[in-house]
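User: My collaborator sent over this chain with a note saying "see what the structure looks like." That's all I know about it. Can you take a look?
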Amino acid sequence: MPDAILLDALMPGLDGFETCRRIKAQPAFAHVPVIFMTGLAETEHIVAGFAAGGVDYVVKPVRAQEVLARLATHVRNARAVRLAREAVDVGGLGVLVLDARGRIAGARRRRTRASPSASPMRPTPRPPASHG
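Assistant: Without extra context I'll predict from the sequence alone. Here is the result:
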C-alpha cells in the first residue's frame, strides 16, 4: 500500500484526473493522498484535480524541497486519520462530526449485534426519557 501517490494530469490514454477518480473509488486506496504534479496551471485544471480527489496540486516546474514538504505533510495527516479511525474501530467508540457552527453534522457509532440499525454518519434517535 503506498503512503501517497504523485500523479501527472497529462498521461497517454487515461488522464490523471480520471486515474485519480478510479483510485479513490477503490476502498483499499481511497485514503491514500494523491498529489498532482503537472504543467496544467489554469484554475479549471487545479479545481478539476481537487474535484477528482487530489489533496494537493503542484504546477511544474516543481521545486523538490517544496514537493517533499507537501508530501511529508499529507502522509503525516493521512496516517493520523487512519490511526484515529482504527482507534475508533478497535475501541468501539462513536464519532460525532460538528460543522463550523458547532452543530451536529453527523454521527457514526460502531455497529454491534445489539444495534444492527446503527447507521453511519446519521444521528441515532434516543428513546424518550422516563420521568418516574
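A starting point for your reply to your collaborator: DSSP finds three helices and five strands in the chain.
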